[in-house]
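Final report, Chapter 2: Outcomes

The project's central promise was a pipeline that accepts a single protein chain and returns its three-dimensional structure in a standardized token representation, suitable for archiving and comparison. That pipeline is now operational. To close this chapter, we reproduce one record exactly as it appears in the project archive, with the input sequence first and the structure output second.
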Amino acid sequence: MVVRMSPHLLGETLVKLVQAGKLIPGGGVTPGCIERWIRNGVNGAVLEICRIGRIRYTSEEAIQRFLEAVNQNPELPAPAIRRLSEKEIEQRKRDLGLSS
């Protein structure tokens, strides 16, 4: 997999990748998540980066473009929710020592 560097980011408001997750509304986006957005993307959209020396950057504008591209597709699959059966719940309680 190839990470495409975007030199046009140099004219934008740069942020180090380690700080990028804090700029996402709601915060709490992990560095690992940012890396996946760069390498794998989400629904065809990838987060753009550039490198200056050994430090990789994205930009506030690139984050905005990425989020807009990801949210343009209204047909995103809903996250799968699996409900535990009563038997599984009881087994987990026993495993945790919570069952009598």
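Archive annotation: The mean pLDDT is 81.
This record, like all others produced under the grant, will remain available to the consortium after the project formally closes.
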